[in-house]
Amino acid sequence: MGRPDGVAVHDADADGVPVRIYTAGEPGATVLYFHGGGFVVGGRDSHDSICAEICAGTGYRVISVDYRLAPEHVHPAHFDDAVTAAHWALGRHDGAVVLAGDSAGGNLAAAVAHALRATPHAGRIAGQMLIYPGLGGDMTRGSYVDHARAPGLSTADVLFYRDIRAGGPAPEDDPTFAPLRDTDFTGLPRTIIISAACDPLADDGRDYRDAIRAAGGRAEWINEDGLIHGYLRARFMSAKARDSFARIVAGIQCLGQGLWPHD
């Protein structure tokens, strides 16, 4: 899949973290995008067309972060790279920043949002768009059981990626590893979570929405019927996936403008 016309692309170094930057004219905001792949696979090339289409659809600058991968690099390497890239982007570019990512990248986007609350940059984070994220929910109930053998991602797969990422036993109560394990959900930016209904991770999106709302924040969870984990790859073949991606792009655009489309 090629890039839309009018999108300029170049690679850069974000204080040691490789990034790819997409622009289409004068951007009104910046999207920091973290790719999926279970912290094991993926990179700038795997999500190149997705980032280019977000850039074309919003007009925003998109920075795709090529964080280190397991098993060569275990937690907290992925989180450290994500935070480093976020500080680099916030220091280099003015205006609002939207944190976004799919699957493992949704985990990193949320972890960065939690971490940046205590920094001078907090007011610049306009929102987060989390696409079928794995946030460290309870794997003994709900969607982890109901969709344990779902196509695209099984509960066994989630456990495999979790253990590879950790390089051993998964850390307990570490929000940089599992944002749902945080004890404080105040001060988070406006958050849109989009899950696939047939996905073990679906309830993570609902539970994260509920935690933010309970803390007085704004959050919306959209659970896409008839879709499985990783459906962004099918956005040119499936009308449902295409429509969901359009909602994602529109949501990112609203967040970057300081608008909340879910009141």
Any idea what the radius of gyration is? 17 Å
| Helix/sheet category | alpha/beta
Percent range of helical residues: 25-40%
How many strands appear in the DSSP assignment?
Answer: 8
Average pLDDT over all residues: 97
| Broad shape | globular
Say which CATH homologous superfamily is assigned.
Answer: Alpha/Beta hydrolase fold, catalytic domain
The first-level CATH class name: Alpha Beta
How do the helices and strands follow one another from N- to C-terminus? EEEHEHEHEHHEHEH
Distance between the termini: 35 Å
As for the CATH topology, it is Rossmann fold
Strand content: 15-25%
Number of alpha- plus pi-helical segments: 7
